[in-house]
Please model this.
Amino acid sequence: MARTWPLIEREREFKTIQSALASEAPDLGVVLTGEPGVGKTTLARYATGTMAGQVRWVAGTESARSIPLGAFAHLVGPSTSTDPVTFMSAARAALLAGGDTVIGVDDAHLLDELSATLLHQLAIDRAVRIIATVRSGEVVPDAVTSLWKDRHLVRLVLSPFSKEQSVELIESVLGGRLEGLSADVIWDASGGNALFLHHLVEGALESGALRQVRGVWQLRGRAAVTSELASLLESRIDHLDDESLHVLKLLTFCEPLDIDVLCELAGDTAVDDAETRGLIRVAREGSRFNVHYTHPLFGDVIRRRLGIASSRRLRGQLVKALAGRDLRTAAERIKLAELSLDSDEKVDVELMSRAANDAISLANIPLGERFAQAALDAGGGLAAANLLARALLWQGKAEASDKTLTAFDPADMDPVQLVQWGLTRISNLLWTMGESRRADEVLALVSDRIDDPALELVVEGLASACALFEGRLTEALERSQKVLDAPRASPYALEWACFGGGLARALSGRGSEVAEIAARGRKVETKVDGLLKFMGGYGAVIGLTLTGQFDEGGKEAARNLQFRTAGQFLGWAIANIVMGNVDLACGRLQSAVGRCEQSLAALDTTSAAAWSFPGRIILAQSYSALGRDTDALRVLTEARRREGRYVAVFAPQLRITEAWLAAAQGVTGEAVSVAQAAAREASAAGQFGIEAEALHAAARFGDETAAPRLAELAGEVDGVLVGAYARHAAAVAAGDGAALDASADELAQIGALISAADAAAQAANVHDAAGDRAAMASSAAIAGRLSAECGGLRTPALVAAAHPLPLTAREREIATLVAAGLSNKAIAERLTVSVRTVEGHIYRACTKLDLSDRADLTTLLRNEN
Model:
């Protein structure tokens, strides 16, 4: 299907061009300079497209550069004169014959000397308006350069698109939202160059690397370079000698490459020549000088020219040159392993295994899978199989992961092998497949056979995380503490214990203890699976948000948001779900929605059941807070289908989400009842931080009974937030408008804007009932401002404040359901009352509002929206 690539408006540049070409302007026009493909010609033609008078375009070309007045030949016509003066005079007359004229010159740096001189004379005589484009870094005729040096024309340097402009352009072409990680990858590859951006997207669409999932466009894998773009870039390298081309061929398989290695393989002269031609650049990075392409797409173009045999040979040369060097970093090991994979050198099992572990630790899971598979195929045995299974489980390839490990008999394993095998299988069974029972069986098998104290700590750490997710917080705390108290616990034991113990403490209301645990996890995170750090960080973020430390929670979440390859999509998705918690807590609803929609789309291609669960909770709550109850119901229904023991820890939060949805639907009585049930469920599970959240939700929805228990929790749960909740709930119970205003201010100062908005709206409703119009207007204005800051917050309290009606809470609730299209019988079933009761409330509501029937009531309530 043909796609239209619109012009992304460059408002400042566009206005500069129009101003320079205006007849009353002191300048005669503009020269646009910039890198190839930055959009100079497109913008120039667009800016002149609607001008009055004629615009006559010429173009400098390599082929016409040796022909006098070659660029203007088609406008001037044939001439028998060989005298330059006569020739130029005739050309000038021909150009000016049409009256008011704008001369457009594309690639003015390629003009022959006579054409450049003619253009310069036209400028000196002020005979025409001129718009010209010049490629940066090229040799430009003096006559053209003087156009802006002598201030006849305005010089405008056209920069590449910003990332925001690039995303706007891509999304306008695709007709949908582009995933944030994919946007980063495409932006890095294109450098904001409009032409490269165009061809990268087209190539990715043609190859299937760019596809739409759940309404989000995702890039997975390498985007193929289109033939058209390859042709454009190949013009830069077509005239290179074999030695210089060899430099580029080596670099295409290993960029960046240490300059000493490159010179050793290609020779100093060839490297210098490639640098002089602007094809490569040398940058000092630490103690080394590394060589890069001047543009990353050159590598793809060179790669297209190489066959399998030559590619294998070149990679082999690089492997030999690099193998003798000290591989100090994960990046260096990964680079060498990637070269080895498709080279003519024999696979080094140890290198592939180490590189697989490195790639997994850096959350580049598909690459880790390739290395692990190569190690296994080369005879790496159980160790390689375990690496492969880890890579598969992190990608949600649950069955393949389990099959890889069940091919080995645990009876034949030594204790270390058994623990490694068990960790991976349990992780896969529980968090990817959602099979708690089988995970528990494997955990029991491993526990029974291990008696080494160090290995026992690893099992204890994993068991703490398993117990946490299955809702057994006390056990999770006890098991994690055993590891945290051990002086010589291994990195894996500590990371798992920090995961299980950190989140368990946060949920139980001991959030102030989480920071220290998270710090211990950070010290070992580079020595374990890359994705484990997101889980350890998750507990830290929840601990900070539940204690009201939203700024610190945001900083903690932001630690893990930096990704640069499409292969890191799973880590990117989990990290954004973690940040989504902070966004929701702070009231950044649109941001929370965007993050979670994209994250769930990224996880949609996997079976990462456990990690999609909190994402759905955040998304459904955010939708509900925005009044998007249909969307919230859809996501909540997806979450309910995925409920199970493997995510039992989230059950109270899921009930809170159901309360938020009921509130969004206007059924406030049900919202209060469900929130109270969620609080009881959380309390029974020892999740006192979540119990406070549930009780405060009930208070926001109008519950007058939550204050006493919240006051108790304020003395038991860490942080400032629960105390503020308790004071808000007490103000709701007392119907105290001034206290509600104070609560709104306190909650806003903490940063809990959703709660602050509801408190202000409740204050407005109390002031209105008391007849204090001035106080009501002030509180309503604050509620409206906070609602806007939250991105369009819509809650029962805000609706009531914005549209005050002389109805009781029950009458408004039933009227809302009437407006939603429910029959009296359906309303009675929803509220567990009789049909006669519903009819009575509808009658009284219509009487108070001077309406004839339920149809008029429906019209009134819908107009509120």
